[in-house]
Amino acid sequence: MFLLLCPTLHASDINLVVIDSHKAIYESLAGQKAFKELTDLKKAKNSELEKIFSTLKSLEQEITAKSATLNAVALEELQLKYDDELKKKNRFVKDTQEELKRKELQLLKPIMKGLDEVIKDYAIDNSVDIMLDKRNPVVIFNSDKMNITDKILKLYDKQYTAEKE
């Protein structure tokens, strides 16, 4: 479709390239370092979460084991302790997910910015007209000669004006 709208361009005149941005991010030296930092943080958080689960399991076992022998007040106190620990676990999971998202953005933002600069320089130096992302159907870079927006605007405005008359 694009080539139909650009009669002055031929397929052989277009330098179309593809990049796997995910691979570029995560396999770069900076990406590997960031991924290791994220992995280490996840391991630490999982260790903390395992302790919380262990406490929950112990409380659950205690409630089950003592439910027949404890009076109602003591059993209710034990159940409240379990409920508090469950809330703590849920808060911890939510907070950890948010922390990991923030950390990932913090670590990846400078990598993506640096890659954007390298991609733009590469595209200009190598006369790239269009660069597509292999994993996402998006245009990463396009040269000005590929942009037909002004031509389309003029044609549309001409058509619009003719229809209004």
Task: Give an overview of the whole structure.
There is one protein chain. The chain is mainly alpha-helical. It has 2 domains: 1-16 and 128-156, no CATH class; 28-126. The protein contains 5 helices and 3 strands; from the N terminus they run H-E-H-H-H-E-E-H. It has helices spanning 2-5, 21-27, 29-66, 72-125, 149-164, and strands spanning 16-19, 130-133, 139-142. A 3-stranded mixed sheet has the order 1-2-3, with helices on one face. A hairpin with a 5-residue loop joins strand 2 and strand 3 (139-142). Helix 2 crosses helix 3 (29-66) and helix 3 (29-66) runs antiparallel to helix 4 (72-125). The longest helix is centred in the middle third of the chain and has 54 residues, at 72-125. Mean pLDDT is 89; it is low at 1-7.
Using brief descriptors, characterize the structure shown.
mainly alpha, 2 domains, 165 residues
So what's the oligomer here?
A: single chain
Low-confidence stretches: 1-7
Name the shape in a single word. Answer: elongated
Structural class: mainly alpha
Domain count: the total is 2
